[in-house]
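Z., the sequence and structure:
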Amino acid sequence: MEVGGEEVGGGGGEGEVTLRYERDLVHKLKLLRHELSLQQPQAGHCRIEVSRDEIFEESYRQIMKMRPKDLKKRLMVKFRGEEGLDYGGVAR
């Protein structure tokens, strides 16, 4: 007998419940890998320019105006009035 997608009874012992899965492990792994590949960072950079005095407020305002897909890009922050070379971190 089938109840809510599960096969109940009909097994070897009395009261035994046999679960029937719609997806096997291999299919679940393929689906997981596909979903993870869709979440990979986008090409390009997400650039914002802020002052050190109001770093939180300005960053928040600029980030809230961005499109969700742009937020998956690498974040680059430039501080207003500070020139530097970026080699993974600012060098002066």
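The chain is about 25% helix and 25% strand. Residues 2-38 form one domain.

Let me know what you think.
H.
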